[in-house]
Write a structure and sequence with these properties.
This protein is an alpha+beta fold. The strands form 5 sheets. Strands 4, 9, 10, 11, 18 and 19 form a 6-stranded antiparallel β-sheet that branches. A 5-stranded antiparallel β-sheet has the order 1-21-20-3-2. The protein is elongated and about 120 Å long.
């Protein structure tokens, strides 16, 4: 037990420390946010991916081994104790929490204590009536430990072996989910605003399918609606609405002839097909553009009141131009190319996770809850009555948990039956 408490204390301390460290960033990011020494400490100790570091896994393995061995060593004594709780002979020789003597008829005592009808037996030449209930309550701690073990194993394996993917795009896009062989289609996406223009919710309608659209294979698909804090499960994937941004349609013409068109998200660029190395980037989009003095570009609201694009142009990774462009009749001209941005719209970024051990963790949580219910709500009780030579009975009772409450109920049941004393 002392070893288990030590492990739990260390793991709890690590979880507290890790909660203050942003996970999964690069060494340069930690160096910039914290300091050189702190970044070296974070990366050296594996706190940048705390729940997958080898020493956290080792501590967790020791804790799991400890819980497993505790349960195994306690199993046989627990089985024996459970059997003893139903054995009149063991009760007759065991201790009693309370008893009452001089009882004319013990059966009403059993009834008032809401016990099953007692069974009569002969023990060492004495007539004994025996009854008990809630023997399963003895298994509460054991079941609870088993549930914690399953929970830890399921969570740890899930953290070690889970896979995450990111898919982003606009309405109508179909994109692969990593290398899984599945594809996700964004059927619809809405940014719901309140009356004060603040965001109320992001809602995406998505379809996950086994084969891409246009494939000769008939796709097997499932659809769902995803919003913030309301993920959906499809084909074993958990789809989360993560974030959003703006996108626009970009059109490139040369000498009045359409050369290429497509949708570009903010932060992305499009290389001109006929001019390798010449790339146009959509750096940002402002639906209600305002150039605040001393601060820079911002948007006054989320509504399309004064839309503006921030674009940049590079040639062979060298910047050749950057500007804000308001939707007017004047397009962007680069050499012989005419570039226009149009149809501003929101794109959705979806985070997709697979965790084959999530069900094991959920099972562990359920088993733990069952163990807690057994431990706290099922109080093992046994009552036995022994007939005396004068024909009266002495009634004994014992409860392994909740002794004070049981004693009170026992004494109340004896009040109308006893001719002797209650102790």
């Amino acid at each position: 037990m002392g070893f288990a408490i030590t492990l739990l204390t260390v793991l709890a301390a690590v979880c507290v420390v890790a909660s203050f460290v942003t996970q999964g960033q690069s060494y340069e990011w930690y160096q910039q946010v914290y300091s050189e020494g702190t970044a070296r400490l974070i990366v050296g100790l594996g706190l940048d991916h705390a729940f997958r570091s080898w020493w956290i896994i080792a501590l967790t393995a020791f804790l799991c081994g400890n819980l497993l061995l505790c349960n195994l060593t306690r199993l046989r004594p627990l089985v024996a104790r459970t059997r003893a709780e139903a054995d009149p002979a063991s009760a007759l020789h065991g201790p009693a929490d309370v008893f009452g003597s001089g009882i004319a008829d013990p059966l009403p005592v059993f009834e008032k204590l809401r016990l099953p009808k007692p069974k009569a037996s002969q023990v060492e030449g004495q007539k004994v009536l025996f009854s008990g209930k809630n023997r399963l309550g003895l298994w509460g701690p054991w079941v609870c430990h088993l549930g914690i073990l399953l929970l830890i194993v399921g969570f740890t394996l899930g953290q070690m072996l889970h896979r995450e993917y990111t898919v982003y795009g606009v309405i109508g896009d179909t994109k692969p989910i990593g290398d899984t062989g599945y594809y996700l289609t964004i059927d619809d996406f809405q940014v719901k605003l309140r009356d004060d223009d603040t965001v109320e919710q992001y809602v995406a309608d998505v379809t996950v399918q086994r084969a891409p659209q246009g494939s000769t294979t008939v796709p097997d698909s499932k659809s769902a609606t995803v919003s913030v804090n309301h993920p959906a499960g499809l084909y074993g994937f958990k789809v989360y609405q993560n974030s959003t941004g703006y996108a626009a349609r970009i059109t490139v013409e040369e000498d009045g002839t359409p050369l290429q068109t497509g949708v570009v998200c903010a932060g992305e660029g499009v290389e001109i097909a006929d001019a390798p190395g010449l790339t146009v980037y959509l750096n940002a989009f402002y639906p209600d553009f305002y150039l605040q003095p001393g601060v820079g570009p911002t948007t006054l609201s989320g509504r399309m009141n004064n839309p503006a694009y921030l674009y940049s142009i590079t040639y062979q990774d060298s910047m050749v131009g950057m500007n804000y462009w308001l939707p007017t009749d004047d397009p962007i001209t680069v050499n012989d190319y005419v570039i226009t941005f149009s149809e501003p719209q929101s794109y959705t970024l979806l985070q997709i996770k697979t965790d084959r051990f999530q069900s094991l963790a959920l099972l562990g949580g359920l088993v733990t809850m069952v163990g807690l219910i057994l431990a706290f709500y099922l109080l093992p009780v046994k009552v036995w009555a022994v007939e005396s030579e004068d024909g009266t009975w002495t009634v004994y009772g014992r409860s392994r948990k909740g002794g004070a409450l049981f004693r009170e109920a026992f004494e109340e049941a004896l009040q109308s039956q006893t001719k002797g004393e209650t102790l």
